[in-house]
Amino acid sequence: MNLEVSKEAAEWYKSEMDLEQGDYVQYYMQLYGGIPTAHPNYSLGMSVGKEGSIAVKTEVEGITFYFNEVNSWFLKEFDMKVILGNEELEFICKEK
Question: What is this structure's pTM?
């Protein structure tokens, strides 16, 4: 269970979402819509702020990116890497 965010992706978040050092970006699971994932019928959502108990996190460029305990099941069998490709975020999930 690993979460990695590239420096370039973190800089994109800071610029596009007006984030400042010390802010939090939460990834969470939702049914349909959003960013496709390795889990059928689920997509990845994100919000700014700290909610719930943090289960998996990484800090890049002063921003904490995380999954809380409720949504950490998503990474149980996968590692996720967030990169910036072609000026858009890409979410790469690889089985362990």
Answer: 0.88
